[in-house]
Amino acid sequence: MTRITRDMIAYLLIIVFSIVLFTWAIPTYTPAYPGYGASPALVPNVAVGVMMFMAILSLVTVAIALYTKKTLPKEETEFPEDLEDGGGFTQIGRVNLYHLARIMIPCVLLVVAIEYIGYMLASFAFLMVLQYIIGSRKWLQSIVVSITLTAVLYIIMRYGFGVPVPGPQIFE
Amino acid sequence: MEMIIAGLMDSISIYSLMFLLLGVTIGVMIGAIPGINGPMAIALFIPITYYMTPLAAIGFLVGLNKGAFFGGAVSAVLLRTPGTPEAAATAWDGYPLTQQGKGEKALRMALYSSVAGDFISTVVLILIAAPLAAVALFMGPSEIFALISLALTVIAGIGTSSISRGLMAAGFGILLGLIGTEPVTALPRLTFDVYQFGSGLSLIPVAIGLLAFSEILLQLEKLVGKGAGEHATTEFSSKLADRFLSFKEFFANTKTLLRGSLIGIGVGAMPGLGAPVASFMSYDQAMKRSKHKEEFGKGRLEGIAASESANSSVVASSLIPLFVLGIPGNLAAAMLMGAFMIHGMQPGPLLFKENAQLMYGIYGSLILASLFLLVIGRFGLRFFCKAVNIPALILYPIVIFTCIMGAYLGKSSMFDVGIMLAFGFIGYFMRKFDYSYVAFLIGFILAPEWERALQQVVIISEHDTFMFFQRPVAMGLMVLTLFVIARTFWGSICMRRRKRVEAAAAAAGQHKAD
User: Fold this and answer.
1) Which of A7, A79, A89, A111 would you mutate first to test chain B, the one with the most B CBs within 10 A?
2) B75-79, B149-153, B231-235, B445-449 — which one is most confidently predicted on average?
3) Which ipTM was obtained for this model?
4) Which single residue of A118, B248, B404, B503 could bond A170 by disulfide (Cβ 3.0 to 4.6 Å)?
């Protein structure tokens, strides 16, 4: 998929999202106009209107350029890693869903697990898994980092700020 | 006068000094780690400031930001890996000096230039913010509404190559900033019947997710599987002339330092530009005016002085629009605005009237932060150099876990951790698709104030559609907003047209060659 195709899909999704907000979300979840001041739906509608207008404008601009078969500059059609100069500080690029899933899933599992097995065990297991995913194969180092970080944050939260750590307090 | 003395005395209390020192130290250490910058550090540490007094909290965060700006130079000079765009110009001359074994000398130049730029900028802030705020007090809701509209359009261009995508991001930020209790009816709005949304989305999980977590996701993507976790260690020369900076060498760059500081102050005071612009502009000017142009990029101290003095002076000067108008000029200022709001204060001209003692305390902390930076940088330079060598395999799990626990800490709620993860996910896509997360975050922060001003205008004017025509300043600002939008779009159209012509010419040339 070229960058311009991906951008067009993104614009279309934004337009659909805006229509859903206009027709369902804002009318359903906004209080009725109280009879004074501006309507509670005014600013949300303006914000969504800006999003939708800009998405339509961008889509039309790209469509016209493609229809008239104008030669588009490389940075509009290709990803920075495909360009010769690499794109400087830009972070535009292909989405790596596999990488995203590898990091996000353990984080989501931590949020769920912490409620059942408590902060200590869940955090230790999470840090071990995360280090393994990132590429650490030094088990002793991983164990030391996991235990130290879990303990340090426990001490900071519990005794430094007096905040209860999340989940059941298994070791108390 | 009593207020000034009381404020300054507050800033030199042991409690405030301790957190200020801690902020600067952590800031330099964090900034030295490639990929972690000032706003990201502020986002990570804001939850901790819940438990501090307002002065200690703001002092800590300001110290953190100042420290991180100098810290960014450490990785730029030693590894040629500028963690932030503004440190790129420092790397151009800093890294060649490191290759010659003069890395310590380059860092000392960076330190003294940072401190000088920061100090000059802080003095300017102190001298002009309060008088300007007194003028700004005459602004009513119409002017505030128009001003925020202007700020949102100016800021929409930051962090993206497309103003349209910037405005889309700002619109999305405003929309999410409106979730919670509607100000006029006091009824829930856009909460989707989720009770945790009743008080709105908290800034802390949103900021940590967008700034820190999504950045880590991107950095890990580059690192995982490439074995880039270990950095090369840096060798320093043991010769005194290669390690230390002589008075002669420092004073030879006085003009460059002053010029850089002035450029930084000017750029920082204007919302939407920021440190990278100041840094590159100053470097460019230094090179053009130098008698040794050919030595730039090969290890010239003047290049480091130009870049560092300019980017560090942005730190204090970007607080001018925040203190005077309540408009954050850049991401770090937006995060500080969030910190003010968490501590029950609304940045803007009223801050000087309602919290005068605190403001003078903050001024004191700003000056002391510059001095602390000098002392800590001077004596801890070799230690901070080690921070750049922390292996990624240890660093990233620590940062990710800190993001998670930082999001939890704000309200002791795992729901906020979920919000942080969601915004990390959104931030990843925003960066990959070139939608400005800066515009999003500033829209998110300014949305409630923007709506409040609009409601006040509508209620005061009794639904008069032409209310802006009766307020010349507000009308001027609205016209300026439209001008900025038109100007940016026109510039963008011209640039696209030029690039297409160039691309077509290149394609025709290629066709002929074939």
Assistant:
1) A111
2) B445-449
3) 0.93
4) A118
A72 occurs within a structural domain: yes
Q: Distance between CA atoms of B374 and B380, rounded to whole angstroms? A: 10
**Residue at token pair 């403001």:** B359
Rounded to whole angstroms, the Cα distance separating A99 from A79 reads: 18
Boundary (domain end) residue, out of A24, A57, A82? A82
Answer yes or no: do A119 and A57 share one domain: no
Q: Which residues contact B135 (CB under 8 A, 6 or more apart)?
A: none
pTM for the full predicted model: 0.84
pLDDT tens digits along B43-72: 888 888 888 899 999 999 999 989 888 888
Nearest by CB to A37, from B184, B225, B499: name it.
B184
* Tally of domains in chain B: 1
| pLDDT for A85 | 47
Amino acid letter at B504?
Answer: A
- Tell me how many domains chain A contains: 2
Quote the CA–CA distance of A67 and B109 in Å, as a whole number.
55
Rounded CA separation B278/B267 (Å): 6
As a whole number of angstroms, the distance between CA B451 and CA B198 comes to 17
Q: How many beta-carbon contacts under 8 Å exist across A and B? A: 193
Q: Based on the domain organization, do A76 and A104 belong to the same domain?
A: no
Range of the domain at A107: 97-160
Which of A34, A51, A82 lies at the terminal end of a domain, its last residue?
A82
Residue span of the structural domain in which B305 resides = 2-140+206-231+240-437
**A56 in a structural domain:** yes
Per-residue burial over B422-434, b if 16 or more Cβ lie within 10 Å, else e, is: bbbbbbbebbbbb
Tokens of B130: 């309060």
Q: Are residues A61 and A122 in the same domain?
A: no
B170-190 burial by CB neighbour count: b if 16+ within 10 A, else e?
bbbbbbbbbbbbbbbbeebbb
Specify whether A120 is located in the same domain as A145: yes
* C-beta separation of B313 from B120 below 8 A: yes
Which positions 119-148 of A are in contact with B (Cβ < 8 Å)? 123, 126-127, 130-131, 133-136, 141, 145
B23 and B59 in contact (C-beta within 8 Å)?
Answer: yes
Contacts of B165 in chain A (CB under 8 A): 54, 58
A144 belongs to a structural domain: yes
| CA A8/CA A76 separation, integer angstroms | 11
- Whether the CB of A152 is below 8 Å from some CB of chain B: the reply is no
Predicted pLDDT of residue A44: 96
> Residue B179: enclosing H or E segment and its boundaries?
none
Q: How big is chain B by its Cα radius of gyration, in Å?
A: 23
